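Worked Example 4.2. Consider the chain below.
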Amino acid sequence: MSAFPRTRVGGLNLSRLVIGTNWFLGYSHQTKSRSLMIEQRHNARTMAEIIGVFAADGVNTVLGPCSKVLCRAVDLAEQRAGKKIHRILTPGVPRDDRGSVQWDAVGKAFDECAQASASFCWPHESATDALYDGMTGKIRHMERICSMIRERDMIPGLSTHLPQTILSADRNGYDVASYISIYNAVGFLMPVEVDWVQHVIHGAAKPVLTIKSLAAGRLMPQVGLPFSWATIRPCDLVAVGTTTADEAREVLEISRACLENRQANVELQITRSKQSLIKKKG
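Applying the procedure from the previous section yields the following structure tokens:
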């Protein structure tokens, strides 16, 4: 099978499908009990198994925080697959109680990303959006942040929940290779309507990595993935988190089917209420 369709970000050749990690690390965006279930289920070995399913199908990019267990899992998956998996790590930008950036702590956070073999260092939404100034249309300290990332031989970008941040990055010419943006069919966690976010994505100067494609489990893959793949540009990417290897295989098949304009070959779940829908043989 051919490698998963590609795009270029910051000069690197990345799969357009990106391995999300919320469903590895316990960020369910649902309930505390659901998040605990995820945490208790996973360790570096189980994560590596799922990452390996993606890697075997040509997906070479993972997105997440600079977590020791996650980075260990990626190391294991790379060793087993014999393939490079690019890491997009999303550190915070520490600030004190008055809102002043703590630059020594920022440097330490970026150092940790570099030591974890990150290809990309894209400050998390909790940092980027806090630094966005709606009055001036600028992101405070973004030039310095990008410079610090470059000094550590990583490629800068940014993560945001605000479409305005993408416009700001473009208008001000910040040294970013891409932007992470929430985008899904039901508008989950999006600050404006879906069509407006799509408008911003299509006008962005750089590729956009869309997240929360399945609205943190609120959308079935057969619904959320076709929407995402059909309404972004050929240069853009989609991040999807999965909890099991079988879920990873479903996401891969559905995504390939969307991009190849065909029906996905996935087995439907069977319950008693659906027995009358099953076509009898003969």
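The chain has one domain: 6-277. Residues 50 and 218 are 21 Å apart (CA to CA). Compare this with Example 4.1 before moving on.
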